[in-house]
Write a structure and sequence with these properties.
alpha/beta; Rossmann fold; 3 domains; five-stranded parallel beta sheet; 10 helices; 12 strands; binds N-carbamoyl-L-aspartate
Length: about 350
């Protein structure tokens, strides 16, 4: 049995298969309308969501299944202090598959090793958001026919934007993808992604601050919102919140086949006037997200039927148990009772270790 915690849990071939299924679902919805008859999806949302939760719920209904769940931490036993591990064990008695979101980094992984059903990470703090990446990949695939040789710009909050982290992870597995990172210096991409993903995969990347000066070279522009809820200092958010606005004037400098994606919600970083531009595909991305989530539910339930034993995503890796302590206050290892501190060795020679839950350095 498998879960989806990080986008790299699926191979490039599996992602391609899922995109093909999602396209078929879009073309022939009736063919899939009873595919999950009798199955239940639980949506456990400890953090606000519009698209992710509702597209999961719509996805399961359209597959003929049904849905249970909650949409805020305050309406669940988390408010009484229940752990993610216990929640996962309990919900496994009621549902065939779980989709969850939480502000705590690594929480979906901990749920997945305690659940007896597949767990889907719908966003764990500022860490990962692999199902948004599924929507992003299908949107790029439909417009560009593939991923090799693209120049992809990421603009906005690259520090806390979990959708950025996951999409870069996915793109690292294709050939000759060039990355242009556009952000204020306070919100640059975390070092672990630069080191472990971009540099390890020999990807070309630049870090710049101006959208205007760089938009002309892009094939894809991935805009993001400044993530107010993740800032420790509200004044810093106030200072940075209007860093970028994509408007009609800037779009005029872009290639005629440069597509604009945004995971949404938008605050003010894309002018509403840009919506009429055929290169603006962020609403289409939402529909693609529902079809990909349908393909994902089918895939994980199929895998579970083949083999109900949990496959731990760190099986076979060199792990250090309780040798170091994670210093990230948003990591599950600082929030969950009696959880071992576990680090994976990523570079034995230089003694580099990262927390398995949140990827931060030891
Ligand atoms: C994103 C998220 O939750 O990280 N939203 C989404 O799921 N589509 C992006 C965001 O909140 O800015």
């Amino acid at each position: 049995m498998r879960s989806l915690i990080d986008i790299v849990d699926f191979s490039v071939d599996e992602l391609k298969e899922m995109m093909d299924v999602a396209i078929d679902i879009g073309n022939n919805p009736a063919k899939y309308s009873e595919a999950c008859k009798g199955k239940k999806l639980a949506t456990l949302f400890f953090e606000p969501s519009t698209r992710t939760r509702l597209s999961f719920e719509a996805a399961m209904w359209e597959l003929g299944g049904s849905v249970i769940g909650f949409s805020s931490a305050s309406s669940s036993s988390a408010a009484k202090g229940e752990s993610y591990a216990d929640t996962a064990k309990v919900i496994s008695c009621y549902a065939d598959i779980i989709a969850m979101r939480s502000p705590v980094e690594g929480s979906s992984y901990v749920a997945s090793i305690n659940a007896s059903v597949p767990v889907i990470n719908g966003g764990d703090g500022g860490h990962c958001h692999p199902t948004q990446t599924l929507a992003d990949l299908l949107t790029i695939y439909k417009h560009k026919g593939g991923f090799d040789n693209l120049t992809v710009g990421f603009c906005g909050d690259l520090k806390y934007g979990r959708t950025v982290h996951s999409l870069i992870g996915a793109l690292s597995r294709y050939n000759n993808v060039n990355i242009v990172l556009i952000s204020p210096k306070e919100l640059v991409l975390p070092d672990y992604i630069k080191e472990e993903v971009l540099e390890k995969n020999n990807m070309e990347y630049v870090e710049v601050t101006s959208l205007e000066d760089n938009i002309g070279c892009l094939d894809i522009l991935y805009m993001t919102r400044i993530q107010r809820e993740r800032f420790d200092d509200p004044e810093e958010y106030e200072r940075l919140k209007n860093s970028y606005v994509l408007d009609v004037e800037k779009m005029a400098k872009a290639k005629s086949d440069m597509y604009v994606l945004h995971p949404l919600p938008r605050v003010n970083e894309i002018s509403v006037k840009v919506d009429a531009d055929p290169r603006a595909v962020y609403f289409e991305q939402c529909l693609n997200g529902k079809h990909m989530r349908m393909a994902l539910i089918l895939k994980l339930l199929e895998e579970k039927a083949k083999d109900p034993v949990i496959v731990d995503r760190f099986a076979g890796e060199k792990l250090l148990i309780n040798r170091y302590r994670c210093t990230n206050t948003k990591c599950i290892s600082q929030n969950e009772q009696e959880l071992d501190q576990v680090f994976k060795v990523v570079d034995e020679e230089n003694n580099v270790c990262r927390c398995i839950y949140c990827d931060k350095l030891a």
